[in-house]
Fold:
Amino acid sequence: MNAFTNGSPTPLSDRDRTAADTPETPAAGRRWKRWAAGLAVAAPLVLGGCNFYPSYGASRGSTTQGQDTFKLYSGMMTTGIIVGGLTGLLILYTILRYKRRSETMPKQFHESIPIEILYTGIPVLIVAALFFFTVITENKVDATVPFAAKVTSTGSPVVDVKVTAFQWGWRFDYPNDNVSVSGDVTNGPQNHGPQMVLPYGQTVQVTLVSNDVIHGFYVRDFNFSRYALPGVVNVFDLNIVRAGFYPGQCTQICGLYHSEMLFSVRAVSPAQYQSWLQSEVASGHTMKRTPEPATNTPPPYDHVTHSNALAAPASKKGSL
Structure:
């Protein structure tokens, strides 16, 4: 008996080669494909909580523009999970199905034209589809009513607000109602800076400018961010769909107290909004012909005006 036969008349290498050359049964192959297809379809739904538009941890949007942005984000994430899942499953299947069982060189082949067309054409189609939906969404988000319009094409009122960013605070002017609100750093409701009050269910046209350096206007629940650039006027519309308190912040590093340059948006009913405007005018919070913050600026934050010897005076917070 040969020492390398291990008690069998057939050498080990021949037995291994026989096992490696045995093809997988058709039923087993079909099971693999069914499992792979089912997992690829179910994975994004499970991860997203079985919702048609899984959130993947993102805000669903409290404006019509933000909801459009959320749908695009959700679709891209779902597409990425499906593509990544299928790729991973194909790699895993290849590793398990064709793992090395002997020293025999496997059959070599190349230039499979159908496969090359498949793995080139599918990514191109995916990228083209994502590009198409991105353009559609951007056009919806950037669409605005005519500048300084009083009503929309459907007769709905338009609220004009001029937002001025400065180091390190915000000023919200309502030119049609002679109301102005401003504040710096974390002063304001819930210690979140000055508050911009807006009506939900109506179109709000925002004119965004900067008084000094580059700032970033960002509200997470709106899925929206836009630069406030010196010498540049940015105009965009917001259509808030529900009442609520929405925190915002500056997202562009703009100096020493950038991290505390906060603000908030409070959405109320149109009737409550009109009452708020009247109360602001009665309190003297009106617009002034000056680039400085309005007269209702909260008391200066101590560490901005006193604790740092390099800080600018409270009435003129400029660059350090």
